[in-house]
Every structure is written in C-alpha cells, then in structure tokens.
Amino acid sequence: MSLRSAADPHYQRPLTRLIDRAAGPLDLPGFEAENGYSSLKKSVREYTPQQIQAIVKDANLRGRGGAGFPAGVKWSLVPMGPDAGEKYLVCNADEMEPGTFKDRLLMEQAPHQLIEAMILVGYAIQATRGYIFLRGEYIVAADRLNKALAEARAAGYVGKNVLGSEWSFELFVHTGAGRYICGEETALINSLEGRRANPRAKPPFPQIAGLWGRPTVVNNVETLMNVPHIVLNGADWFKGLSQGKSKDAGTKMYGCSGRANKTGTWELPIGTTARELLEVHAGGMRDGKKLKAWLPGGASTDFLLPEHLDLAMDFDTIAKAGSRMGTGLIAVVAEDQSMVSAVRNLEEFFARESCGWCTPCRDGLPWSVKILRAFEAGQGQAEDLDVLSKLTKWLGPGKTFCAHAPGAMEPLQSALKYFRHEFEAGLAKPAKAA
Amino acid sequence: MTETIVKLADLVKPAAVAAPFVLSDEERHEIEHELSHYPDSRAASIEALKIVQKHRGWVSDEAIPVIAAAINISAADLEGVATFYNLIFRRPVGRHVIKVCDSISCHLTGYEELRDGLIEHLGVRLGGTTPDNRFTLLPICCLGACDRGATLMIDDDLHGPVEPAQIKALLEAYP
C-alpha cells in the first residue's frame, strides 16, 4: 500500500499531505496507517497538559481564523488544576467570511485530522467536553466529521478515560442554522447555548467565563489542525515551515477567488507573496485583464493594490500595509469591475448580517448601503462622500460590542482612499441651466 | 430585494380550525437524542427547530410552543431564536430550496447575472416560491466555495460555477 504522505516526504505540508480529493478522506485504519492519532497518544502518555501548551506557545502558532492571536497564549489563560471543573473546547468551523473556503476542504477531506486535534487540544487545556460548531450549509463536512467521530469513539480516543488515562473527554458536532455573526467567538458561544447569536461584552474573556459560564477556548479549524503536527515534530520544525519567508511560523492555507484562471486553495509556507498566489498558483487574471484591487483575506479586510502584491502574506506585513491578512484567501477585482459596486455588495452583506445589537452597526450599515446604491446609479450627492468617510469612523473600532461593524468599514475606507475617483464618477450630474 | 405583499383580506380572514400541533414520535425521539449532547436543554433549540423543519419543510407558529415545551424553555425564547437564524423557515417553502450565494467572490464572478437568470426562469423574486410549489429562491451568505463562483445550493447539493444559460438544465434534476 502506498502512503499518501509519500507525496510530502519532507513533511512540509502538514495540513494537506494526506488529502487526495479523488480518493476522498481516509477512514480510521487509513489515517492510523499514516501515523494518525500517534500525536494524541504521545501527548496523553508522555506530556503533561502544561508541556503541550508550552510547545505550542514556543512554536508561535497564531490563530488562522483571521485575528492571528497566538494559540498558546490564548490557552494559558484557562484555569488549570484539579479544582478547575467543567471546561470546554469549541472549534469555530462556522466558515462564513466571504471569500474564504479553506476549512471546507480541510474538514471534508481530512476529518480525522480535526477530531485528533480537538482531543489533543482538549487534553492540553484539560477540557471535559468539545464541540465542533459547523455551519449548517456544510452538509458533506458534517457527514464526514460525524463518521470520523463515531470511529474515534469506538476506538477509545473519545469518551471516558481517553487511551486509558484519568482524563475523559466528550466530543460533539453541532451544526448551525445560518448567520455570519456566529463566527464571532462570543456570538458563537451564545448560539451554541441555543440563544440568538448576539456577541457578549469582553471581559470576561471566554477562557475565564465562556460556554455556560465555564472556561472555554474557541479555535479555528486550521489552527487546531496544526497542533498534532507541532507536538509530533516540535516547535523548531514548525518554525522552519515558513522557509524564512516570514517571522510567523508554519504553513498557511492560502487561496484565490474572483476572475482568476485557476481559483483554489493551497497550503504554502506562511509569508508567501500575494503575487505568487495570483500569478503562479491561480495562473493570473482571467481573459488577460489587469488586476485593479484585492482583498487579502475576506470581506472584512482593507483593499490593497497591485503595488502591494510583493508583500509577504503574514499578519504583521499586511497590517503594515494598512490592511489585515484575515483568512489569507485573496479575492481579486479586475480592471473592468466597479469598486463602487463591489463595496456596495460588501456593505449589503454586512448590513444584512448585523445582529442588530449595537446601534452604529444596525443603523449605520444600511445607511452606507443606501448611499452606495445612489453612487452606483449615478445619483450620488457630494456631501454623502463625507458621510461615507464619517461612517468609517462612527462604525470603527471601539463603538460596538464586536468587530462586525469595524470589519465592514475596512473595505469601504480603503476603497475611498484608493478609488475616490470611482465614487466621484457616481455623483449626480447637475441639472442643465435653462 | 425581498418584498412581501400582505393582503388585508388574508389578515382578517378567520383562520381555519387546524388540528393542534403534535410532535411525531420520530421528531420527539430525534430531539431527545440532541438533548443528550448538552448539559443545558436550551442548547438543543436550534437542532430541535431543524428537526421539525426537516420533517415538515418549515416551522409554523403553532409548532413553537410545542417544541419549546419539549426542550423546557419558554415559547418566547424559542420564537426569538427561530426568527434570528436564516436557515429556519417560518413560512412554507417549495419542494426544493435554491440558495444563491450573493457574497463578494460570487459578485465578482457573475452573481447578479445568475440571480437575474433565476428570477426570470422561475418568475419569482428572491424570497418567493413558484406557484407550483416546486422552488423557493433565497439569497445566502458566502457558501465557502468561492473558487467555484458563481455558486448556489439546491437543497443539500452545491453547484458551481453556474452560468445563467445552465439554469434550465440544472433545475430539471429537481422535479
């Protein structure tokens, strides 16, 4: 039997090395033959939870859900010790950031990798239960994760006394019923509790008081899936995966959507340039068109320009250019596509998906949509350009409970900065003097 | 844009005396199974709504207090949940539900043409159901298949990229 990992002899693509889309996901025996669950076994038998936390902290694994917060630091806030009581680990598998399609691939094609990661991270924070919060539309992923989970449970990886240890861990797949805001970690917790998905005020942070008021860690799918590989191969190996392209560590699931020739998602060293994503992996823009602008990692990131293509796609470099790497899957706008129309589409999305909890978000986003529709129709008013600029401040950071409205303002403020002439072209023409 | 036309006559028409809503044994069994996944029964609210919707197509007003009782929360709380999530349908839908992605990557790869093609082919607006009860057309948040834009889902099936010219043949697979 040839092993799938043979295609990655140097272990440089930990997340996708076992993926063979034509053959489908590995079942438990297939996964175990590829060293699957050996990291979990090693962890439970050889390491204390604190040692695993230390390894992951040292590896500098930053959150792959968009914010880039170091996972090891996040976990270190969780109360430990025999009196810590019920604790929860939640996987944020509510992939709904427009332009993002990496977790779908990982979960559909490598479900056991996520199950192993959940159990291992559950052990590292000594959680009693884990939930995979999966968006309702991911039908195939739900089916495959549930199948993998049943296999893992039958094999003794999940349940009472995991692998014969003192530690017990229950794991469930929870499917959602829509709404983008569920991806916000405190809204996700409310949704998991069976409530409307309104965000909660922080502090207290979920690591102290989260799900049902208990210490809770929420991590993204891609973040979690890195952990078994880090424990197995060590922090230095993980740091080396970036091949010197970034001071961030590991690989990243990158991707490209929009009018490019070969859209898709690929695991590459973190710090790979956007130019390589677009020109090498995505085969350049479709129909020979020129690139006009690009979103680095989802709807809630600032637009960048062709002149930014040579920047390393990592958290700090993209931040210095005035945007955010976000999820790291770029969306490209072609030269003949309207920025006003693109921003109108983005703000319609954010306006609809606002949970309505905070006034600036609930009322400000529809206001921006109304103005943008007028500019798109050539009926813009000059003073409304100022209103749009002001909205980017009024809906900016610190005005609302969560990052929904500030995120919504990122593409708008950057479009106003780089493409003001396109907005001005949408001003209503003055009536001709009689 | 979604528009609902409410006729006054429909509002004042005396409601037909309907049989009281009762959960089937299968629904009750499935809800109880979900309850076992959580230390607090409220957490099963979304799954319970989805279970009833799976069997009946949608969740009626009459169903709310009965489901709420099954998971031991107030009907008002469950109503708040049932009206928050877009995948819980509070009006009857057609035999097949088309969810067309309207987010940025599909916007850049032909969403508006696809939407207009669907509206023309089906003769209903977004949010509408065809008179023969075959299709309901809904907009949906990014489906996480942006490399295949423009995308849509019909029931549990993902399709993409879909060109307006392919709509007719695609829909024929959903009688």
UniProtKB/TrEMBL annotation, chain B:
Family designation: Belongs to the complex I 24 kDa subunit family.
Descriptive protein name: NADH-quinone oxidoreductase subunit E
Superkingdom of the organism of origin: Bacteria
GO molecular function terms attached to this record: 2 iron, 2 sulfur cluster binding; metal ion binding; NADH dehydrogenase activity
NCBIfam families: nuoE_fam (TIGR01958), PRK07539.1-2 (NF005722)
Cofactor: [2Fe-2S] cluster
Keyword annotations of the record: 2Fe-2S, Iron, Iron-sulfur, Metal-binding
Substrates-to-products reaction catalysed: a quinone + NADH + 5 H(+)(in) = a quinol + NAD(+) + 4 H(+)(out)
Sites where the protein binds [2Fe-2S] cluster: C101, C106, C142, C146
Keyword NADP attached: no
UniProt subunit comment: Composed of 13 different subunits. Subunits NuoCD, E, F, and G constitute the peripheral sector of the complex.
Keyword Zinc: no
InterPro entries (alphabetical): NuoE-like, NuoE_dom, NuoE_N, Thioredoxin-like_sf
Cofactor details (free text): Binds 1 [2Fe-2S] cluster.
